[in-house]
Amino acid sequence: MSKPILEIKDLRTHFFTDRGEIPAVDGIDLYIQPGEVLGVVGESGCGKSVTSLSVLKLIPQPPGKIVSGSIVFKGKDIVPLKESEMRKIRGNSISMVFQEPMSSLNPLFTVGHQIGETIRLHRGKSHKEARIHTLDMLRKVGIASPDAILNEYPHRLSGGMRQRVMIAMSIACSPELLIADEPTTALDVTIQAQILDLIRRLNEEQGMAVMLITHDLGVVAEMCHRVAVMYAGKVVEEGSVHDIFKNPLHPYTQGLIQSVPRMSETRERLYSIPGNVPVLSMSLRGCRFAARCEHVMPRCLEAIPHLSQQEEGHSCRCWLYESTQEDAV
Amino acid sequence: MTQLSINQSSDTIAIHEVSGPWRDAWKAFRKNKTALLGLGLILFFIIIAIIAPYIAPYGYKDQQLMDRLKPPSSAHWFGTDDFGRDLFTRVLFGARISLWVGFFSVIGSIVVGTVLGILAGYYGKWADMLISRLFDIVLAFPSILLAIAIVAILGPSLQNALYAIAIVNIPTYGRLVRAKVLSLKNEEYIMSAKAIGMKNNRILFSHILPNSLTPIIVQGTLGIATAIIEAAALGFLGLGAQPPDPEWGKMLSDSRQFIQKAPWTVVFPGVSIMLTVLGFNLMGDGLRDVLDPRMKN
């Protein structure tokens, strides 16, 4: 196993609000190997996006703050880095594709200008060189007539086109890691498939590592090598795609997989996990999922289980499994 | 369906033409009749202001004491005032003064207001606190009263009246820009600009400033109308233009004692103020319809 390109250790990002301190990301451990696609799944509000913004240190501050933990990118912890050093990493070594292609482009500038800006910023190229590079990028993301699109304003492009432009912008400097925060949620299904295909191609051809944040298990099954399932600011299960789908260990993961509609079954009602994600606060005790879990035991309400390895490369945070130990916090 | 296909074909044709938010706005603006009327009025007065020295039949200072308070005639189209000065000439030259005060006071307010508004909105915290409270203090006074106080301090002159009007109107633009920046700050494209590693200053000037321009343009156009009225009011009170400058407000106040005997002395400057202000208001409303996304549909 080679050295991971990104290793997040015990990351805690808290928000300090009027209602008190909210641990949106509450001690996360993740790693991504070079050339790997890691899926991060979980329902809304479980801390997926906060995790991805933390990696680029783009948490709005205040109210947010990385309280503790380390984010090691290519052997270097980026948490203590200064803003000016972070700017060299953003868009250059790590870049990000956002969920909303409709609002992620500045309406007042042409597409070419915006992609070119990234290139000029990090590569110090002239306008002319940047333009050639931009055309290359647009071609690479599968835009048929790059010369025409170059001079277009975002409002004249469709959602799928804009997301391609966003991807072109984020891969313009050949980053080693691409964070895609629900890149297809706002798109319709056929476009979704095209965009995912594009991301996979970039991953395969350029060996770019991808952290794919999504709530769509179908996307995960199709795209990812490994999966981390998040719940209420913690990773509850982590393993290869095969393990997670064939042998989900955590009751939450089992619930998630059951809630995916299947064509073959005739059951009328879709399975849903009862209850809601708990309101995060510093005073939560015990397993975060206890209130919704079918297998809840007295122990679950008292102590948080540790994320411990159950099989080779497959770990789970649950008291159901004997080797589990209590978490430090 | 036919409608749709027509749109699409015109779209593909338009691809190689310059098309942008401003061009689209101009297309929509052209369809707005009242706004075009406003633009026409403004252009009319601008042209008058430019060519005043060439078309004026007399000098604006020339007194013909034999012809005092003469009604409109072929020699004096708008009549004469109590010094026998030709009112047509003075109204023409008055356009220069009013437009000059209007434009420059608004430009001054916009520049200062925008800078303060951006600082307050983007950096927040104590900068916002300080700047916003400053705006609140200025807005706590009725604007004309504050303008009078400022002119009283600086001394009555047209230039000081311009400064006073500019200062009084800074908070209007400042608060507008601050509010716009606050909403823009959370736009995804600002986040994505940060995510590609752009510097704060660069984001401010190349992303936030251009996107906050539309409300400033609208408010600025309407603001010129207000500034012209305020300048006229200061002139009327003797705090703006000094004799013999032909400022419209000043002309009104100089002639008010003759309003029954020689009504033309107040009618023409009054109508000029009204038409200019109307022009800017119509155009400002039209711009708002075109540029403000909330007004669309």
Automatic annotation (TrEMBL), chain A:
Subcellular location(s) of the protein: Cell membrane
GO cellular component, one term: plasma membrane
Gene3D superfamilies: P-loop containing nucleotide triphosphate hydrolases (3.40.50.300)
Topology relative to the membrane: Peripheral membrane protein
One MF annotation (Gene Ontology) recorded for this entry: ATP hydrolysis activity
GO BP of this protein: peptide transport
Protein name stated in the entry: Oligopeptide transport ATP-binding protein OppD
Organism field: Paenibacillus pini JCM 16418
UniProtKB/TrEMBL annotation, chain B:
Topology within the bilayer: Multi-pass membrane protein
GO process terms (BP): transmembrane transport
UniProt keyword annotation of NAD present: no
Keyword Transmembrane: yes
Transmembrane segments: 35-56, 97-122, 134-154, 216-241, 262-283
Pfam families given in the database record: BPD_transp_1, OppC_N
Highest rank taxon of the organism: Bacteria
Subcellular location: Cell membrane
Positions of the ABC transmembrane type-1 domain: 95-284
CDD domains the UniProt entry points to: TM_PBP2
One GO CC annotation: plasma membrane
Keyword terms: Cell membrane, Membrane, Transmembrane, Transmembrane helix, Transport
Family in the record: Belongs to the binding-protein-dependent transport system permease family. OppBC subfamily.
Protein name: Dipeptide transport system permease protein DppC
Organism the protein comes from: Paenibacillus pini JCM 16418
